[in-house]
Recover the amino acids of this structure.
C-alpha cells in the first residue's frame, strides 16, 4: 500500500464521516458546516484526479457561495433547531436506510464487473501536462479544440447563462415581501 | 501525475455518498436539510464524472461537472427562495406541515 492509497482512504473516511455528521446532526448550522467539510474533501479528490480548475470552482462556488447562502437562510429563518419527532410514517426511517443500501449496492454491482472485467491501462497512464487546466477546459468549451464528434459546448454554455438569469429573476420575484407587493397595487 | 488508484474506488465512494444523501432526502423533515442532502447527491455524481474523465483522459467529463455546478447554483437560489416564501406563510419549514393537497 503506497502513500497515495493511504491519502485516498483517509480522505474517503473523512468524506463519509462528514456526510454522516450532516445526516445525523439535529442542528441545521452544524449540518451545513459538516457539508462544507465534505465539499472541501471532494475538492481534494478533484486535485488527485488532475482536475485543478474543477477543484477551485468546487471550493469557491460550492463550499463558498452555495453554503454561505444556506447558512444565511438558516439564520434568517431561525431554523437551527430541527424537530424530526413528528413523523407521519413511523417505519420510514428504517425503510429509507434499507432503500439507500439497495441503491448503493446496485450502483456498485452494476459498475464493478464492467470495470474489473475490462483492462484498465489508461487509468494509470500519465495525462498531458495541461489536463484539466482552466485554459484547456476553456478551449474545449468554446470549441477551439475539436472534441470527439466535433462537439463544442458553446450553445450549452450560453443556455446556462440564460438559466442563471432565470434563477436570479425567480429568486428576486419569489422573495419580494408583501409591502412591496401592496405598493405595486397587487 | 501517475495514479495507482483505480476508478472503481471512486465509484464505490461516490455510491456511498449518494446513498447517504438519499437517506437524508427520505428521512429528514426539515426542508433545508433535504436540500443539503440533494447537494450531497449532486456532488457524488460530479465525483464520478471527474473520475471517469481522468480514467478516459477526456476532459468532457470536467465540462459536464461545470454545467452541473451551474444548475446546482440556480437550483439553490430558487429553492431557498421557495423555502423563505413557505416559511413566511406557514411559519415552519417542516415538510409534513405542507399538506394542503392531501386528499
Amino acid at each position: 500500500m503506497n502513500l497515495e492509497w493511504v491519502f485516498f482512504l483517509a480522505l474517503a473516511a473523512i468524506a463519509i464521516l462528514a456526510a454522516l455528521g450532516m445526516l445525523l446532526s439535529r442542528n441545521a448550522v452544524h449540518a451545513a458546516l459538516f457539508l462544507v467539510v465534505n465539499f472541501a474533501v471532494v475538492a481534494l479528490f478533484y486535485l488527485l484526479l488532475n482536475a485543478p480548475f474543477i477543484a477551485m470552482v468546487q471550493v469557491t462556488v460550492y463550499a463558498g457561495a452555495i453554503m454561505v447562502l444556506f447558512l444565511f437562510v438558516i439564520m434568517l429563518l431561525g431554523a437551527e433547531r430541527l424537530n424530526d419527532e413528528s413523523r407521519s410514517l413511523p417505519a420510514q426511517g428504517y425503510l429509507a436506510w434499507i432503500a439507500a443500501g439497495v441503491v448503493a449496492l446496485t450502483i456498485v454491482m452494476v459498475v464493478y464487473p464492467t470495470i474489473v472485467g475490462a483492462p484498465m491501462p489508461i487509468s494509470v497512464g500519465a495525462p498531458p501536462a495541461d489536463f484539466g487546466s482552466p485554459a484547456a477546459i476553456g478551449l474545449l468549451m468554446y470549441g477551439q479544440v475539436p472534441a470527439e464528434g466535433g462537439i463544442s459546448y458553446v450553445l450549452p454554455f450560453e443556455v446556462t447563462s440564460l438559466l442563471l438569469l432565470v434563477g436570479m429573476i425567480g429568486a428576486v420575484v419569489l422573495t419580494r415581501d408583501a409591502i412591496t407587493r401592496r405598493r405595486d397595487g397587487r | 501525475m501517475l495514479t495507482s488508484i483505480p476508478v472503481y474506488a471512486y465509484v464505490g465512494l461516490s455510491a456511498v455518498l449518494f446513498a447517504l444523501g438519499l437517506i437524508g432526502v427520505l428521512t429528514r423533515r426539515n426542508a433545508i436539510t433535504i436540500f443539503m442532502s440533494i447537494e450531497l447527491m449532486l456532488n457524488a455524481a460530479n465525483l464520478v464524472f471527474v473520475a471517469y474523465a481522468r480514467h478516459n483522459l477526456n476532459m468532457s467529463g470536467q465540462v459536464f461537472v461545470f454545467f452541473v455546478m451551474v444548475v446546482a447554483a440556480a437550483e439553490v437560489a430558487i429553492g431557498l427562495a421557495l423555502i423563505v416564501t413557505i416559511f413566511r406563510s406557514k411559519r415552519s419549514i417542516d415538510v409534513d406541515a405542507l399538506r394542503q393537497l392531501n386528499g
